[in-house]
Write a structure and sequence with these properties.
Largest sheet: 8 strands, parallel
Order of helices and strands: EEEHEHEHEHEHEHEHHEH
Mean pLDDT: 93
Number of strands: 10
Low-confidence stretches: 25-30
Distance between the termini: 31 Å
Structural class: alpha/beta
């Protein structure tokens, strides 16, 4: 897949390292909001095997409050510029706002990761003009209320239908399928049962013929199942990432890059063998 001047081979799973520059993200809020801390974390993830860094300036945890475009820009643009300048790596901007999309791509990002799937006013037009890959995520509702009793008749068919509609909308706006990545949205308007049903049937999303991104790292679907807090979800998160990779996920969005990379190495050696 083409990310501006970068080509990323998605024939094998790639790792997206999470860099939240927010004060209130559920796992690492407030840890990396300074440029120095953010650069050190980005460097650690890249050295551990991350293929790209996902930078976000608005928390989308359940119950999260809205953040203005100006506030989001003040958080992410200095970090994007610094990471781009220091490492020349693939950078994803986690945003739903057209203004943030434009300024982030200008600052050095090359992928838009939108939890609202370009449904905000002006987002489709912005993504089409910028002509970079876009990740469309499924979410029932909005972060503030998405976990207030989410319901589905058939979650898999409804998420697939949602993606079909968004793919069509993107095509009409001038965004080619070759620029689209799909994220089923684990934890975004889903119960524990919904999340594991999606994970169990993840391979069925291949019919949409777009790369699949999975982000379940340290989420409540791990914590609630194992009855552990956010700092004790490493093993469950890596297990989930590995299960997703086995079912065809091409991008794994994770906090724990080194451990996920090691799990994938064992999986690849088992699947393809080891050269002596």
């Amino acid at each position: 897949m083409k990310f501006r001047s970068h080509d990323l081979d998605l024939s094998e799973p790639k790792i997206m390292g999470i860099l939240n520059v927010t004060p209130d993200s559920f796992s690492d809020g407030g840890q990396f909001h300074s440029i120095g801390h953010a650069l050190r974390q980005a460097e650690t993830m890249l050295q551990s095997g991350a293929d790209m860094i996902d930078i976000g300036g608005e928390s989308t945890r359940p119950g999260a409050d809205f953040v203005s475009a100006d506030e989001e820009l003040s958080r992410v643009i200095p970090i994007i510029e610094a990471v781009h300048r220091e490492f020349q790596c693939l950078i994803s901007i986690d945003t739903s706002k057209p203004q943030v999309m434009h300024e982030s791509i200008a600052a050095g990002a090359c992928l838009i990761n939108d939890v609202r799937a370009l449904q905000e006013e002006g987002a489709l037009e912005a993504a089409a003009k910028l002509n970079v890959p876009v990740c469309l995520m499924h979410m029932q509702g909005q972060p503030k209320t998405m976990q207030d009793a989410p319901t589905y008749q058939d979650i898999q068919s409804e998420v697939i239908a949602f993606f079909e509609e968004r793919i069509s909308a993107c095509f009409k706006a001038g965004i080619p399928n070759s620029n689209l990545i799909l994220d089923p949205g684990f934890g975004f308007g889903k119960t524990l049962s919904h999340n594991y049903e999606l994970l169990r049937k993840l391979s069925n999303f291949s019919r949409l013929k777009c790369p699949i991104l999975v982000g379940l790292s340290r989420k409540s679907m791990i914590g609630s199942l194992l009855q552990v807090d956010v700092n004790e979800r490493l093993i469950g998160s890596v297990a989930g990432a590995l299960l997703a990779a086995q079912q065809g996920a091409q991008i794994l969005r994770v906090h724990d890059v080194k451990e996920t990379k090691q799990a994938l190495a064992v999986w690849r050696a088992t699947k393809y063998g080891v050269d002596q």
